Amino acid sequence: GFALGGEAEQNIEKSHEPCNWEFCGVVLPADKESFIKIKVHNQLYLQDQIELVIPDSAPIKYQVKEIFSQDFKKIKEAHGGQEIIVYLPSKKNIPSGSILRRNTSR
């Protein structure tokens, strides 16, 4: 490759493979008991069927039944791109750094 003075190989035929998943957000360190703190990256809506992808564990299916804003007001949706933080209720302790994803193939 280029590090050794040669040309790097490129895969231009498959540079944009279709994907069945959309990245929705990342779990931040918890600061409220029984809630997952999320930094939203793409939209998140009530009734969304998402998965929590946790290191060293199988993904956890989760239906969004409630979304709370940073000041704990109930909201119907959240959109990323503006450092938006929301809370989702959870009886499970979800580790920081876990990600939320939505299946887009449905």
Question: Which value, in Å, is the CA radius of gyration?
Answer: 17 Å
- As an assembly, this protein is single chain
Mean pLDDT, all residues: 88
For the report, how would you describe the main beta sheet?
Answer: 6 strands, antiparallel
Question: Helices and strands: which structural class?
Answer: mainly beta
Helix content: under 10%
Flag low-confidence runs. Answer: none
Order of helices and strands, N to C?
A: EEEEEEEEEE
Count of runs of 4 or more consecutive helical residues: 0
Spatial strand order of the main sheet:
5-4-10-1-2-9
Principal-axes shape call: elongated
In what range is the share of β-strand residues?
A: 35-45%
The N- to C-terminal Cα distance equals: 40 Å
Q: Care to count the β-strands?
A: 10
